[in-house]
Amino acid sequence: MTVFASSAQSRIYFLEVGGEKFAFTNTFQHKVQPCNERGGEKEQTLKKGFSSKKESNAKQKMSSNCRSGIMVSIFFVFYLTYLFLGALIFSSIERPEEIRLKDELRVLKTNFLNRSCVNSSSLETFLEHVLTANKYGVSILKNASVNTNWDFASSLFFASTLITTVGYGHTTPLSDGGKAFSIVFALLGVPFTMLVLTASVQRLMHLFTYWPMGVCQMKAGWSSRTASKVQFVLLLGVVVVCFFVVPAAIFSAIEQTWTFLDSFYFCFISLCTIGLGDYVPGEQSGQTLRPLYKITVMVYLFVGLMAMLLVLRSFHKAADLHGLTSLFHLPKCEEEEEDQEPIIDSLESSELDREALPHKQLTAEPQTSYNSINR
């Protein structure tokens, strides 16, 4: 017996008995088909059929990957457009309110300084207005009032922290329209962000998780568990260096009042989406290229969230290979186990039970009803 062709699902065998060839498979219970003297032509036909099927499967997979990549690219462009439009709307709504609040503080400060005698009530009123304005990100100091919180770059930074759920809270909407738009913008933007991050991390998993594990298994002969350990440790080290240590050094060099520990603390709080807001970059007065700095920090936060999600997915993959996830999962329900029972075994058992039952002989006598017929 010789094997002619095989695949993941079936094999074709050729058996020569008495000068005649017979072809059959191991998956489908076909009747044995004799091959005549022109069996070689049939073999060639079968070879061509398998090769054409393999090529068609490869083409379908390639077209599916291309279609998925195009859809992700289109959605990413839509996401950026949504983010830019949100920044423009926030800037158009909140910029006039910020200017109005700054003018009120300036008048209040002038009136307070022109008074020769200040009583406690006027001082408390002045401090109350100052603290309220500071809560919305507006300072009464002259050097701090130069910066605006609602130009396009700052609005874009605020919109990105809103839909990525980082939310530092250093700048909040001043008007009722801005608050209402924040609700609508976040209601749609947060799911969009999750979709973009999930689609991006799924593709990064092939490059930074599956491919290194496959190389370790093929080249070094490691087991899947050992390969997953090495891959996760290397990935974690790269993420810590590229998204925590190096950015912390850059932030400590740009922000004059930040130490390296403060900068590292900011990176960790931000990429974990905690966002306490006690450290926010680009808020000091006199910083050069402040709009570009804000946009760069926004890009860093988004890419850093991808890296953190990639680490979490890789950790889950390693834990799954080591059987750790099964320790925390609930057992399967009885209905699920019944649904997963093999149908063939149940059919065979029912046939055996049917054969074990005593059979009654059919008679030629007339029957009163259909149910009275012996089966």
TrEMBL record:
The keyword Aminoacyl-tRNA synthetase does not apply. Coiled coil: none annotated. The keyword Transcription does not apply. Residues 364-375 have a biased composition (Polar residues). It is a multi-pass membrane protein. The chain crosses the membrane at residues 69-93, 152-169, 181-201, 232-251, 263-280, 292-312. Residues 140-204, 240-316 form the Potassium channel domain. Pfam families: Ion_trans_2. Keywords: Disulfide bond, Endosome, Glycoprotein, Ion channel, Ion transport, Lysosome, Membrane, Metal-binding, Potassium, Potassium channel, Potassium transport, Transmembrane, Transmembrane helix, Transport. SUPFAM superfamilies: Voltage-gated potassium channels. GO terms for cellular component: late endosome membrane; lysosomal membrane; plasma membrane. Its main location: membrane. One of its GO terms (molecular function) is outward rectifier potassium channel activity. Residues 35-58, 354-375 are annotated as: Disordered. GO terms for biological process: stabilization of membrane potential. Residues 38-58 have a biased composition (Basic and acidic residues). It is found in: Endosome membrane; Late endosome membrane; Lysosome membrane. Homodimer; disulfide-linked. Belongs to the two pore domain potassium channel (TC 1.A.1.8) family. This is Potassium channel subfamily K member 6.
